[in-house]
């Protein structure tokens, strides 16, 4: 569990930002990279936190997005505005979700969550170009595996035996743990199994938590078990508004209260849809 920020997770890896929506600093042999540029309000925190561990925002060489959802991309424009030289890396075919129109659509969600965290939002309209990556890409010692299921463009980053899985293995909060197979249940399970086969010594999720050594393997197995149990419970249901409302009321609590109701209703709808489809 990330108990405070900045927090050194392992050699050359730090958690920054805030515990609920952390970003990660990676020190590679040739540079510094921000992984998971989550909310826009993380930026002012990260700028200060970098100084406490001996770095500065101007030293960051690259920023890597692992999937395209709002709570994982909204720091990018502000980061680019403060450091125009930074290279932005996004999953192949996900570029449209980081264009101006998409970011404007995301902005209300970003503002809601930042307000819940009592943090000010930052720039979200800077024009940007992107570098894309896929499984064949290596960025200064950082490798990638495609781990869809949560989203079609979800990737896991691998660095020195550490797997940054983002939301590919679900949401792991302090209180709430919940599967996130929005795109496909089968691909979600396959992706977690793909991560497990690598046997990373540390697994870092997109929210609150990381797991090391035996706990990492245990967490991945538990992620599969949670998803299978939820799918089994929902099988036989129909994708109607009453079913969506029932699941939404069940899960809109604890850390999910940091998200707008509209977002969690969509979570419920996607989960039911993927659970009942043949």
Notes on the structure:
The chain has 2 domains: 7-227, Ribonuclease Z/Hydroxyacylglutathione hydrolase-like (Metallo-beta-lactamase, Chain A, 4-Layer Sandwich); 231-276, no CATH class. The chain contains 7 helices and 15 strands. By secondary structure, the protein is of the alpha/beta class. Strand 1 (7-10) and strand 2 (13-17) form a beta hairpin. A 7-stranded mixed sheet has the order 1-2-3-4-5-6-7. Strands 8-9-10-11-14-15 form a 6-stranded mixed sheet. 44% of the residues are buried. It is globular, with a radius of gyration of 18 Å.
> How many DSSP E strands?
15
From the spread of the alpha carbons, the general shape counts as: globular
CATH architectural grouping of the largest domain = 4-Layer Sandwich
Task: Estimate percent helicity.
Answer: 25-40%
Please state how the strands of the largest beta sheet are arranged side by side.
1-2-3-4-5-6-7
Total count of domains: 2
Q: Could you give the distance between the termini?
A: 36 Å
Indicate the structural class. alpha/beta
For the sheet with most strands, the description reads: 7 strands, mixed
CATH class of the largest domain, anyone?
A: Alpha Beta
CATH topology of the largest domain: Metallo-beta-lactamase, Chain A
Unreliable segments of 5+ consecutive residues: none
Helical run tally: 7
| CATH homologous superfamily heading of the largest domain | Ribonuclease Z/Hydroxyacylglutathione hydrolase-like
Radius of gyration: 18 Å
Measured by DSSP, the beta-strand proportion falls in: 15-25%
Order of helices and strands: EEEEHEHEHEEEEEEEHEEHHH
Q: Kindly state the mean pLDDT as a whole number?
A: 95
């Amino acid at each position: 569990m990330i108990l405070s920020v900045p927090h050194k997770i392992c050699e050359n890896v730090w958690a920054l930002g805030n515990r609920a929506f952390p970003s990660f600093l990676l020190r590679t042999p040739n540079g510094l990279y921000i992984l998971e540029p989550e909310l826009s309000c993380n930026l002012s925190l990260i700028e200060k936190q970098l100084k406490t561990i001996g770095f500065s925002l101007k030293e960051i060489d690259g920023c890597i997005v692992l999937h395209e959802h709002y709570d994982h991309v909204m720091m990018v424009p502000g980061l680019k505005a403060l450091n125009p030289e930074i290279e932005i890396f996004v999953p192949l075919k996900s570029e449209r979700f980081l264009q101006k129109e998409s970011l404007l659509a995301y902005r209300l969600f970003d503002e809601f969550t930042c307000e819940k965290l009592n943090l000010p939002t930052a720039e979200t309209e800077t024009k940007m170009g992107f570098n894309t990556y896929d499984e064949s890409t290596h960025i200064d010692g950082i490798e990638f595996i495609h781990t869809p299921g949560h989203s079609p463009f979800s990737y896991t980053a691998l660095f020195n035996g550490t797997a940054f899985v983002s939301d590919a293995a679900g949401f792991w909060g302090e209180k709430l743990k919940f599967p996130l197979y929005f795109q496909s249940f089968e691909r979600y399970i396959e992706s977690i199994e793909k991560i497990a086969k690598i046997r990373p010594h540390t697994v870092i999720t997109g929210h609150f938590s990381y797991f090391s050594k035996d706990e990492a393997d245990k967490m991945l197995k538990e992620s599969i078990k949670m998803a299978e149990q939820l799918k089994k419970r929902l099988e036989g249901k129909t994708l109607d508004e009453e079913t969506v409302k029932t699941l939404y009321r069940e899960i809109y609590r604890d850390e999910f209260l940091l998200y707008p109701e509209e977002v969690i209703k969509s979570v419920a709808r996607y989960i039911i849809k993927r659970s009942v489809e043949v």
